[in-house]
Amino acid sequence: MALSKVDFNNINVTPAASKALKWNASANGFETGDLGGNMVLLSTTTASSSATIDITSGIDSTYKEYQFHFTSIHPATDNAAFSFQADTGTNTSYNQTITSTFFRAVHSEADDTPNLDYVTGNDLAQSTSFQMLANGTGNDNDQCISGILHLFDPSSTTFVKHFICTANELIASDQSYNLFCAGYFNTTTALTRVRFKFSSGNIDAGTIKMYGIL
After folding, report:
1. Second-level CATH architecture of 39-213
2. 181 Cβ partners below 8 Å, 6+ apart?
3. What is the pLDDT of residues 126-162, one digit of tens each?
């Protein structure tokens, strides 16, 4: 089998954001373009004494998975629970029906109370409440929560919408909580917006970046 030579006159490698090098359709050249598995940054929201962080655009059928990377989210109120909900269309009730699970690994700065447990108070069963992603985040200057929330195929009109979140927080009593939450929105209507908030008080500081996954 003979190998074809690359047509160097047909190469297009113009730099482009969130692009990679790939073969083009002519089979004798290559170019920059989208490849499966790429993360595309869609938005960045920075909190500053914010009651909520609402992401109301960019969630559509373009991507099958969206990731929300929340970094150094700091509550104004001590011992507050970080949570999220979603909604459809232009609705702003943020009351979609959720069924979920929640467990955590725990260890303290004092090297005591290590634990791995399921947290029934943080799961939901066909509830329209906000889903807790963390509970008890401290508001000392060095305390916060960081993690990644995955939302799968939110524009589907056939299936329910699954989500998974993994996070770590420093709680008010100086313990590290490694948190694992997963569940689904029990709706076949497309989700178009997401809201994050604490159970009490404002989001004092922190950043949430939304990525689309190709």
Report:
1. Sandwich (2.60)
2. 100, 101, 102, 122, 131, 132, 133, 163, 164, 165, 166, 167
3. 999 999 999 899 999 999 999 999 999 999 999 999 9
Residues 161 and 152 sit within 8 Å (Cβ to Cβ): yes
Q: 187: closest CA among 212, 161, 169?
A: 161
**Beta-bridge partner residues of 123:** none
Interacting residues of 26 by C-beta distance below 8 A, sequence separation 6+: 7, 10
Beta bridge partners of 40: 212
Domain locations in the chain as residue ranges: 8-35, 39-213
User: What is the pTM assigned to this prediction?
Assistant: 0.84
Contacts of the segment 200-203: beta carbons below 8 A, 24+ positions apart: 200/77, 200/80, 201/75, 201/76, 201/77, 201/80, 201/139, 202/47, 202/49, 202/50, 202/51, 202/75, 202/76, 202/77, 203/47, 203/49, 203/50, 203/51, 203/52, 203/53, 203/73, 203/74, 203/75, 203/76
DSSP per-residue codes, 44-82: EEEEEEES-EEE-SS-STT-SEEEEEEEEEEESSTTEEE
Which pLDDT band, with edges at 50, 70 and 90, does 13 fall under? low
pLDDT tens-digit map of 182-197:
999 999 999 999 999 9
Q: What proportion of the chain, given as a percentage, has pLDDT over 90? A: 80
